[in-house]
Specification:
27% of the residues lie in helices and 40% in strands. It has helices at 3-28, 91-126, 132-165, and strands at 31-37, 39-40, 45-54, 57-61, 66-71, 78-79, 84-88, 167-169, 174-179, 186-187, 192-198, 202-209, 217-222, 225-234, 244-252, 263-269, 273-280, 283-295, 307-312, 315-320, 322-326, 330-335, 342-344, 357-360. Helix 2 (91-126) packs antiparallel against helix 3. 19% of the residues are buried.
Length: 362
């Protein structure tokens, strides 16, 4: 073989080898990507209308049944502890009290007679004129008379209590927010005929959307006055009709008392969502998920749900997130990604799990 042919073959081999190396290098070269750190999103406000209420509200009701003879209070009126609000017709109650007084007098007379018989029979027993059995019978009659007197006294005390219960008084200082009892109305024991809002701390009652975690704090506004609110209690289940959940917030540092029943504007700060995830077959841990803001181009949705991409050991890895809201330039997501973690901001639709990437400065 001539020298020219050998040189030509060698050049061809070197060219092919160089092309192969160049192709191999290009296949493993990391893709340059631009990243941006995630930041905690400004916590959104939930704007609601709430009703100003007293911390303690109790229904007004008689402890006995009867006919209302007097109504001494109106809705919206301020009352003092012990003030009479309603009165029942006491004619029947007075007759019952008189009957029990007569019953007590009769029982007391019967007891005195029995005690006299017991003393006489004790003397006769000592002088052997009667047997022990006869004396025991007299003693038993005295005990029965004493029992009847005790029962009569108890019925008399009940009759006295009933006459006192005929006057319905305010259990505490406050405002009568509602009255339903009317003059001449017959009511039964325990039937509500009004509502008393006790004097003291005020609260605002709101109704949250079903499935929404009750925020712990916020701000309420009535007219030009503002006050901070703190969550006090929340209903354990949604209302079956409105599908809303009742929550009550305590009003803090009010400049002056707000009118009961007035409507206040309430802005609540949404709380981070905590979700339980299984860590082991027998235990559970709680992972705190936070609302974060990322560029809208960092959000990747390719039929697998919303996700973002982070760089782990020089490779792109997807992280599933929950989309909360969108704007023209940013997206608010819910995720357990640590604040400040960098996510790939451009070209996420071209990435694959495990693809080698190289971060470049923005």
């Amino acid at each position: 073989m001539s020298l020219k042919i050998k040189l030509a073959l060698l050049a061809t081999v070197l060219f092919i080898s160089a092309c192969g190396d160049k192709k191999e290098d290009s296949s493993v070269s990391p893709v340059a990507v631009r990243t941006t750190p995630v930041i905690v999103a400004a916590q959104p406000l939930l704007a609601l209308s709430g009703i100003v209420r007293s911390e303690i509200e109790t229904p007004i009701a008689f402890q006995i049944s009867g006919r209302i003879a007097q109504r001494l209070v109106k809705a919206g009126e301020t009352v003092k502890k012990g003030q009479t609000l309603f009165e029942l017709d006491q004619r029947d109650l007075n007759q019952i009290l008189q009957a029990t007084e007569a019953e007590v007098a009769a029982a007391r007379s019967a007891l005195l007679t029995a005690q006299t018989d017991t003393r006489r029979n004790r003397q006769l027993l000592n002088e052997k004129y009667i047997s022990q059995q006869g004396f025991d019978r007299a003693l038993l009659q005295e005990k029965e008379a004493q029992t009847r007197l005790d029962a009569a006294n108890s019925r008399q005390q009940q009759a006295r209590n009933a006459t006192e219960y005929a006057n319905l008084t305010a259990p505490d200082d406050g405002i009568v927010t509602e009255t339903t009892g009317e003059l001449g109305q017959v009511v039964i024991a325990g039937q509500s005929i009004g509502t008393l809002a006790h004097a003291g701390p005020l609260e605002v009652e709101v109704f949250l959307p079903e499935g929404f975690m009750a925020p712990t704090q916020g701000q309420a506004q009535f007219g030009n006055q503002k006050a901070q609110v703190m969550l006090k209690e929340v209903a354990g289940s949604a209302d079956p009709v409105s599908r809303t959940v009742r929550a009550r917030y305590q009003l803090i540092d009010l400049p002056q008392p707000w009118p009961l029943g007035s409507v206040a504007k309430v802005n609540l700060i949404a709380s981070p969502v905590a979700s339980a995830i299984p860590a082991a077959p027998a235990t559970k841990t709680t992972t705190q998920k936070t609302l974060m803001t990322v560029p809208i181009a960092a959000l990747d949705e390719r039929g697998q749900g919303p996700q973002v991409w982070i760089i782990t050991d020089g490779t792109a890895q997807p992280v599933a997130v929950k989309l909360v809201s969108l704007t023209a330039e940013t997206a608010v997501i819910e995720s357990d990604i640590a604040t400040g973690t960098k996510v790939i901001a451009l070209g996420t639709h071209l990435l694959k799990p495990g693809m080698a990437v190289r971060e470049i400065a923005p």
